[in-house]
Structures are given as C-alpha cells and as structure tokens.
Automatic annotation (TrEMBL):
Belongs to the threonine synthase family. Its cofactor is pyridoxal 5'-phosphate. The keyword Lyase applies. This is Threonine synthase. The keyword Transmembrane helix does not apply. SUPFAM superfamilies: Tryptophan synthase beta subunit-like PLP-dependent enzymes. GO terms for biological process: threonine biosynthetic process. It comes from the Bacteria.
Length: 438
C-alpha cells in the first residue's frame, strides 16, 4: 500500500515512510492510495468473531502487503489485551465503551497499535526515534503508556497549560524514563501547530528521527476502524433481525476528528453505516462546517468536555479529501450538533436518571446528539471515549455518586513527580528541548 499527501505536493510513501516520518514534507496528511473493500462474506460470520479476529482481518486487508502476516497478527493481538463491550441503553440505543484499556481512554487502542508498528520499523535504525504528540486530554496518557520504556524511542508530550484534568496530566507527567512532558503556554491548537511545524523544519529533521503519535500519523488512526466493525458485530449478535439493511447510526464525540475519520474509512471498506452523528461541545467549528459547507477555524475555549476543545481540527483535511472537497455529500452522510456545558451536564444527569448509566462528558455529548437525531426503526451507537473516573469531580457532582477509579494503581494519584518544562508556543523553544534531550 502506498500513501499520498492530502496536499498532493509530495511523492507517495510506503507504509514505513508514512509511519516513521509522520507527516509528508508538504505539510499535508497521509492517506492510503486506495481503500480496499472487505469481502461481503466477512459479514456473514462477524457476529461470532472476537475483537482480535475482526481487527486482524481489517488490518491485513489494509496493510497485509506491507507487514508479514504472522507479525501483523502478533501486533494486533498484543494491542487488544482488553475488551470493548457494547452495552444496551434502550431498545434502539447502545454505547460502545472504549475506555477499558490501561489509561481508561479510547486512544489506548491506536497508541498501542502504533507503538508496536514503530517498534517493528525502528529495529534497524542507528538513531533513536523521537515521537511527538499533542494532547487535549487523553492522547498524552495513552501514547505515554503505549511507548513507555520501548527501546530506542523517546516520547515528547505537548499539552496546553489549561484544560486537562489532574488525572490526565498525571498519566504522562509521572512516568519519566523515555517520556518527556512539555507544557505549552497556550491552547491545544498551539501544541498541534508546533508538532506540525517541527515536521516541516528541515534542520530538525536532519538532526533527529521524528514522527508523530497523534491521529495525524496514519497508523494511529487506522486501528480506530477496528472497533467500529466490532461494535456492529456485537449489535448483530444481540438482535440480528432488527438491524436495518442500510446499517447503523454512529454518534461520535468530535475534537481533532480522528475518530470520525476512522469511522468514515470503515464505511468505505464496507461496514454498513447509515450515517454519522457529529457531537461537538461549544467549540463548534466543525458542526458549522457540516451544516454550511464553509469552515472557519476558531480559537478554542475551555469546556467540561475538554478533549473536544479544538477549533482547527487537523483531520478535517482527510475528511474533505475523501469527499473531494464537496460539501453536499458530507452534509448528507453526517448530521452535526453542538452543546453548551449546561446541556452536556443535563445529558450526564439524564443518562444516569433515566437509564442508570454513568457517562463522562464526551460520551454524554454523543448520547444527546444521537437521541436527538435517531429516527424510528433505526439502531444507534454512541462512543464512550473515556471512563467517567477521569472526570470524577464533574460527573460525581452531577450524578450525586462517588465515581471510583477501576484501576488501583498510580493512575489514582494526582501528584506530578517530575519537573515539567514550560515553553511559549514557538518552534524555537520546542527545538531547543528536542535537541538538548537527545
């Protein structure tokens, strides 16, 4: 499989080049040259398949020409050491719980897969690989966990000075070893911009092997397709006679749009999806784009659903590329909604009061959008991207319950054990840390 840049100004790259460089030289994002269709027969047996088996079929269909089958299977199987259960909320709405991994967030899946892919390709390099990741909430902890103590790899986690919970910060600031946190005196968009600027800085690239672990890296994004297929398989096994032939409606809490992009790719590979529901908080630049066809970036502001505090999502370029920049098909394939903090809080309360389900703010946003959009006779699934314990204060206050952390280890501690450098959102400040840390 070859990969092209969404800016169309760089030559195509192999999987190894796309993964290990992170971004094309022209500043675009890598996309597969073709999206292979999974044979229809696969869906005849999908209801009986495990997440590992489903993921291996999807991965081998997309990447099987690039990685030996046995090694790819090992990568997939070692990624999924935990389940991703689908739980019924009502007769027509279910929730896919993506937070049962080591850092209680959906990004564990993509990060663990990417760490193993990078480890596969870095074996013969003469210099360490430097992984850059910008986080608005859960990416930092998931990437740090996935790469912690991986030989020959250093991880630099850029995070904004405001917005993250203490627990989210602790998951990557407390590790040490090869994980280096960097606090940026700005917003998540500033962190993301710095990562992109680092990749197109030729002086930096001559000195260091650098790649990204954000969803701008194609192999952080591709494994997120796997759980869409698994969600469908679980729904099919539970009520096979009630699934609309047009497929399922997925509601996705959207920040940097990696999750949504993966869902769109899964649909192009053959997964029966009727439409996607886009759920935003008050940072609604993408909602406005879906509704109007015009995108205007905005400076993000803080909300209780902080992982969606993004005003200029990088994966927008992949989505528009898939649709050839035509807004009409986008607005027909997805519906978009945005909500204030008060509305998100009301949704947390409603889920608990009406269904006894405790959701984090992002899942509650996706639930509200799905409940508003779903039509009679349709089956809907909303994605729960983080465990409510990561937002224990907010969720506990709204529901009146004590939110317990299911992991009885250091993730429950909120103290920071290592000194964290702070930088202005300028490339030279980042370069100084990257070069002096190597």
């Amino acid at each position: 499989m070859q990969f092209y840049s969404t800016n169309r100004q760089s030559s195509q790259a192999s999987l190894e080049e796309a993964v290990m460089t992170g971004l094309p030289a022209d500043g675009g994002l890598y996309m597969p040259e073709r999206i292979p269709l999974i044979p229809r027969a696969f869906f005849n047996n999908i209801a009986e398949m495990s997440i590992r088996d489903i993921a291996y079929v999807v991965a081998s269909t997309m990447l099987g020409d690039d990685i030996d089958a046995a090694e790819l299977k090992d990568i997939v199987y070692n990624t999924f050491t935990f389940d991703i259960p689908l739980r019924k909320i009502s007769s027509d709405i279910s929730v896919l719980e993506l937070f049962h991994g080591p850092t209680l967030a959906f990004k564990d899946i993509g990060s663990r897969f990417l760490a193993r892919i990078i480890s596969h390709y870095s074996r013969n390099l003469d210099k360490p690989v430097n992984v850059l990741v910008a986080t608005s909430g859960d990416s930092g902890g998931a990437v740090a966990s996935g790469f912690h103590r991986v030989p020959g790899v250093r991880v630099f986690v850029l995070y904004p000075e405001r917005g993250l919970s203490a627990k989210q910060r602790h998951q990557f600031t407390s590790l040490g070893d090869n994980v280096i946190p960097i606090e940026v005196l700005g917003t998540f968009d500033d962190c993301q911009r710095l990562v992109k600027e680092a990749f197109v800085d030729q002086d930096l690239r001559r000195k260091l092997n650098i790649t990204s672990a954000n969803s701008i890296n194609i192999c952080r994004l591709l494994p997120q397709m796997f759980y869409y297929f698994y969600a469908y398989s679980q729904l099919l096994s539970g009520q096979p006679d009630r699934i609309d032939s047009d497929g399922v409606v997925f509601s996705v809490p959207c920040g940097n749009l990696g999750n949504l992009t993966a869902g769109l790719l899964a649909r192009k590979m053959g997964l029966p999806v009727k439409r996607f529901v886009v759920a935003n908080n008050s940072n609604d630049s993408f909602t406005r784009f879906v509704r109007t066809g015009h995108f205007t970036p905005a400076r993000p502001h803080h909300s209780i659903a902080c992982a969606m505090d993004v005003g200029n999502p990088s994966n927008l370029s992949r989505i528009t590329d898939m649709y050839n920049a035509a807004p009409a098909p986008i607005s027909s394939d997805m519906k978009a909604y945005s909500y204030s903090d008060d509305e998100i809080a009301d949704s947390i309360a409603d889920l608990y009061r009406s269904h006894g389900y405790i959701a984090d703010p992002h899942a509650a946003t996706a639930y509200r959008a799905l409940a508003e959009d779903l039509k009679d006779g349709e089956n809907g699934i909303f994605l729960a991207t983080a465990h409510p314990a990561k937002f224990a204060d907010i969720v506990g206050r709204i529901t009146g319950t004590e939110i317990k952390n299911p992991q009885q280890d250091s993730t429950g501690c909120i103290s920071v054990r290592h000194d964290v450098p702070k930088i202005t959102p300028a490339l030279q400040a980042l370069k100084k840390i990257l070069i002096t840390s190597t």
